[in-house]
Design goal:
Layout (H helix, E strand, L loop, with lengths): L1 H7 L8 H8 L3 H13 L4 E7 L8 H18 L5 E7 L2 H9 L5 E5 H7 L6 E7 L5 E2 L1 E6 L14 E5 L8 H12 L5 H4 L2 E5 L2 H9 L5 E5 H10 L1 H6 E6 L3 E2 L1 E5 L1 H4 L2 H11 L6 H10 L3 E4 L6 H20 L1
Parallel strand pairs: 1-2, 1-3, 7-8, 7-9
Antiparallel strand pairs: 3-12, 4-12, 4-13, 5-11, 6-9, 6-10
């Protein structure tokens, strides 16, 4: 079962994921544009911000050091007079302050975090990572087939484990689950279940259900599919009783520092499409098990915007009724 987790991490929120986002934005065209900025800026820094909510099961200090070393080597190899400055923000308020103070050139966020900031801070979504041809994920609610549990109502006073990021208010599977409960006029998540456990380890979510030590779990549908392929017993013993729509999980944005440089933003987007044309680009794609990087489109946010909006509306209404 340990092998399942190691392979699963390459599907979602791997420790290398943000190094990938940083580097693909600095393809040949993007590098040239950034060199222009470097020539104009005595600081010669490329400032990258990363939400820690996108880094599961990894030492953040190690992640930062690895990203900075590799990115600096890449810049040096391209003879670019820039040094990277990577910041992993573990506090949403601190992250917002840094954005307001224009301390980042590029920021990588959960889509739920982006929705929180977008009306207050001028961020421009640029790029989305693609896996199996899509940048979207859905989530599945799993139980044992022999448990007798068939719907959310059957899970009243049961325990559930959710594979997701630490801060529940920005977790898409948590928001989806709470929305589903409220929509069915059931109690909110903490009142409906006897215990809710958030874990950054997929095995810690699935195995307790598999071994009958927990009633239910939520993971991504892609993770469940991979687990079935690696160990068919998972699919034989567990079943999906509810599945979410597909949601865009994260987005890479330019900040007010560079949004005004239209040429630079355009070059970043264009250079991302050339990733597979270079040896280093192909190696990166192989490491991350990504198909490609695709330009952001406004419609990508439609499903997550609808979820958050409806959840907030129903949550507020329910609070008023109670």
């Amino acid at each position: 079962m340990a092998g399942i987790y190691l392979k699963m991490r390459s599907l979602m929120f791997t420790k290398y994921y943000f190094l990938f986002l940083i580097i693909f934005g600095l393809g040949n065209a993007g590098i040239k544009a950034q060199q222009k900025l470097a020539d104009e800026d005595s600081g010669n820094k490329f400032n990258v911000g990363i939400s820690d909510q996108l880094l599961l099961d990894i030492n953040l200090a190690d992640a930062k050091a690895t990203m900075q070393i590799l990115l600096d080597k890449y810049l040096e190899g391209e003879n670019i007079n820039l040094k990277s400055n990577v910041t992993i923000a573990n506090n949403i308020e601190a992250l917002e302050r840094k954005l307001i103070n224009k301390e980042f050139d590029v920021i990588n966020l959960l889509t739920t975090e982006y929705l929180k900031f977008k009306n207050r801070i001028n961020l421009e979504p640029l790029l989305v990572q693609s896996f199996n041809g899509t940048g979207f994920f859905s989530f599945v609610l799993l139980v044992r087939k022999d448990s007798g549990i068939r719907d959310l109502n059957d899970l009243r006073d049961k325990d559930i484990k959710i594979f997701t990021n630490k801060k529940r208010e920005y977790s898409i599977p948590v928001i989806w689950l709470n929305y589903s409960l409220i929509k069915q006029k059931l109690p909110k998540i903490d009142n409906h279940f006897s215990r809710v456990t958030i874990t950054e380890n997929a095995n810690m979510a699935v195995l307790p259900v598999f071994f009958n030590n927990a009633s239910a779990c939520i993971i991504s549908s892609e993770t469940f599919k991979l687990m079935n392929e690696l160990n068919p017993q998972i699919g034989n013993e567990l079943e999906i009783i509810k599945q979410s729509p597909e949601y865009l999980l994260s987005v890479s944005c330019s900040t007010p520092n560079i949004i005004e440089s239209v040429d630079y933003v355009k070059m970043i987007v264009e250079s991302s499409s050339n990733l597979k044309k270079t040896n280093s680009g192909r190696q990166l794609l192989a490491i991350f098990k990504r198909d490609k990087v695709i330009p952001f489109k406004k419609e990508f946010l439609k499903s997550i915007e609808e979820l958050v909006s409806e959840h907030d509306r129903l949550n507020i209404n329910m609070s008023l009724e109670n």
